[in-house]
Amino acid sequence: MTDARILLHPAFPLLLGAIVTAALPPRKRIYFSPVFTFLSLICLFAVPAGSLMTLPFLNGMELLFFQSTTLSRLMCFFTLVVVFCSQVYSLGREKGREGCWSLVYAAAACGVLMAGDFFTLVLWWEAMSVGAVFLIWSRRDPKASKAGFRYLMIHFLSGNLLLMGAVLYASQGITQLGPLEPGGAAYWLVLAGVGISAGMIPFHSWIPDAYPEATIGGSAILSGVTTKVAAITLLRLFSGESFLLGMGIVMAFWGVLYALRENNIRRLLSYHIISQLGLIIAAIGIGTPMAKDAAVALTIGNILYKGLLYMSAGSVLYATGRQKLTEVGNLFKAMPITSVFFFIGSLAIAGVPGLMGFAVKPLVVSSAVYSYQPVAELLLYAAGIGTFLSIPLKLGGHMLWGTHPAPPILRKPKTAMYVGMTLLTVFILAIGFVPGLLYSQLPWQEEVHFSLYTADHILSEVEFLLAAWLAYRLMNPLLHPKDFISLDLDWFYRVPLPRFFLALSRFANFVRLSVWKGILVLVRALSRFVRNPVSYFMKPIDGGDSTEEYCADKYRLPVGDGALLILMVFAVVYFYVTIF
Amino acid sequence: MNQKRKFSLAILAVLIILIIIEALFVHPHAYSIWHEIHGFDAILGFFVSILLILVARPFLNLFIRRTEDYYDKREDKNGTNTALIKEETPHD
After folding, report:
1. Neighbouring-strand partners of residue A53
2. Which of residues 55-114 of A touch B (CB under 8 A)?
3. From CA A343, how far away is CA A340, in angstroms rounded?
4. Nearest residue on chain A to B83, judged by CA atoms?
5. Where are the bilayer-spanning segments (chain B) (predicted)?
6. What does the pLDDT look like over B60-85, one tens digit per residue?
């Protein structure tokens, strides 16, 4: 069941763009990429609701290749927005491959969001992994190569777990994506697969590992896509799963604690992504319509303001060549425009009223409240403080002000960077001041009413922030940037596991060499036998080398032996004939 | 009193004023038990911040703090360090 409307699939213009840009010379690609992203955005508005393309599958089941729902269109919209802004941000400084692979990546993300069944999901999921890996690799640097490779392994694992779950579900007759019945191997396989991509502990290390290693435009795109698409997939399949509530709370604190320790700016932001994902996943775990809307809203908020934060951090990196907090400071004077963007992004993420964060973050906490989970509410609220401490205060404080003298500006940020950042800021401010713009588009909004701009909400939020600020000023010496790293769970596959594999391969080599030596000994013995078997019974007449080839002249018996033999044979035959 | 102290005290002053305003004029939603206390958010914010910072830095330092070349050293020993260039190439 297909018709021309399938051409409206947002992935279609993007893939077309990828092919077109791949044919262009590297420097020109990025100028065309935003055009195709914009085209995809326009097409999105024309997409009607419902199932638009199905493919036949086994046993009468169908694959829902293009399933357009409120949620999927909403998420595709914001994904495309951040991709567009990042591509604009990258104009003029690009080195070639970003333009093409960002389109592939975006196409795959839309494919996942629009997928209606497991197998379509897995297909686009793998495509997303490929796109992301090449996006990371578009920065030609050994560290980026290694990080990209680790990303690849983790995400192919995630895709495989998903595929296993999908096959198991198909054997039970389930192919459609929708809220899943808890329990069973397939359930947990799919949860693990999606969860790895969504940054669940203990498989979250790829986020702080890979995101800082991409190009500055690439990081902005990566930060807003993989994890968010995975979170939305979790929402579609596992809302209400109580495991997610617990995991989300753990993630929220984990991310914030590491962020408070981190020295590398973009790594700090990456750990913070884990924290925000924790809040989103916790909301998914709560599962009420309000919580689900809160999860969606927070995801969208993160796509926008995290993108802005990565972009401004990227501008700092571009301009100064430095990405560690121990090497920057006082940038508010040196790079005022970028600082303003950073400031807006950081206040937004912290939930300052007037910016988007306030419109979305408290929703998660409120949803915990309205489902009578006071412990969860308290913990989520506390994790939110960590956000304020780590980004506006720690990161912003040490980067834009602080005791370190301003680093020299090596290059001025390009205008395109400012344009990209401005575009995102427009969304953040718009939704911040008129949250209804977002709320009216949320999938469950008929059942839920949000009213955040009330006096007591604003007051309590402001008090909360001021008190945290006071505590920060008190504890400031403890948070001074220091150049060290913090071990995370990826230690297990970066230290003992490689050593184990090395030992295994050394052992295998040892076995191989031993066998080879044994074969050589055998062959040498055999070859002597084959060459000259007589040498085992006699020595050569003239005392030569017994390993030489057999030569009849050297191994002659005395003549009498031959005569005796003839006589004996004659005697036997004579007696035989005369007797019989 | 130096600049920093003054600024901190200014924040504290604003905070107290806000709490007073809240106590006098604003009718709280009171959807959970503790919201009955005025300025609860402030108290919570203050103490949780301190706790978070204490855990993040001094406490975790005992377990997971390592030097920057920790992984590079180990990869050199293993022979798996493919990052032959130790310094990063100019970032872009």
Report:
1. A2, A66
2. 93, 95
3. 5
4. A142
5. 7-30, 42-64
6. 888 888 888 888 888 777 776 665 54
Chain A, 111-140: which have a CB under 8 Å from a chain B CB?
139-140
In the chain, the amino acid numbered B84 is L
d(CA A325, CA B68): 14
Distance CA A545, CA A561 (A): 24
Query: Quick count: other Cβ atoms within 10 Å of Cβ A128?
Result: 26
Tokens of A540: 């050569």
Whole-number Å distance between alpha carbons of A294 and A543: 99
| Sequence spans of domains, chain B | 3-67
Please tell me the total number of residues recorded for chain A in this structure.
Answer: 580
Tally of CA atoms within 13 A in the half-sphere of A404 that contains its CB: 22
Token reading at A292: 């689900």
Query: Tell me: the pLDDT tens digits for A91-128?
Result: 877 565 688 899 999 999 999 999 988 999 999 999 99
Chain B environment of A139 (Cβ under 8 Å): 91-92
Reported ipTM: 0.84
Chain B from 58 to 87: CB within 8 A of any A CB = 58, 60-61, 63-68, 70-71, 74-75, 78-80, 82-85
